[in-house]
Amino acid sequence: MQANRPTVIDVWAQLPTACFWREKWLASLLRWTGQDAPPEDMPVEALIAAMDEAGVALALVSGWSSPRGDLISNDEVEAAIDQAPARLKGLIGADLVDPMAAVRDIRARAKTGKFVGVRVVPWLWDLPPNDRRYYPIYAACVDAGLPFCTQIGHTGPLKRSETGRLIPYLEDVMIDFPELVVVGGHVGFPWLDEVATMIRKFRNFHVDTSAYALHRLPEDFVRLMKGEGRERIMFGTNFPMLTAKRCLEGLDALRLDEAGREAFLFGNAARVFGSGA
Q1: Contact of 61 with 81, CB cutoff 8 Å
Q2: Residue 240 and residue 51: Cα distance in Å, rounded?
Q3: Which of 92, 144, 216, 247 counts the most CB atoms within 10 A of its CB?
């Protein structure tokens, strides 16, 4: 780890399975990142090596549930964590088709100490986050003390982007569940004015920079990082689509002060996801 860089937490990573790689909607994302879909599961060792290369101490790896079934199951996430318990924590995937089973799973896994949040990707379900099918999941998150993680902004894969719009969809959720802690991944472009509004309006709303190399962050977003979003914005990669090394190459160009850099790379995530992160 570089001496002049605080400890780093990556709040958005995944270990894709062969099933995940076969999804047709990945075609555009693979084209953008210049990758080919491998025929096998991504090994834990590949993520740990990428973390070590960039000085990342901890990564949050996520389950991916979909209308067609699990693309990355929570059991697979837990098995990965067990291979590197000091380096990985989990985000629970939730099946909106069977919300009560998802609620029971959240309650059980929250007690293990291996999982620090729940993630649902709305475009995968083609359901905005204010759809009634999410609401048992939100209640379970509040009850278990787990943040709800989701994607905001446009969709890179070949799916509709509308579900990633913050207002009114995510705004409705945070009004209906004032205790719910929410982390919106992938910056929120092109609705950055709505991101800023949500940060001003809701003290428990946060954003991560996953899916962006830092030199590609929009100028309005960087200004938000230095101002009202200083305590709300955290680092993420979207591994394996982007590595931490690639994402962090533009860190110095952001010109964050020492406290702002520490908050972005580590402090905000550690506070939101608890001592486990």
Answers
A1: yes
A2: 11
A3: 92
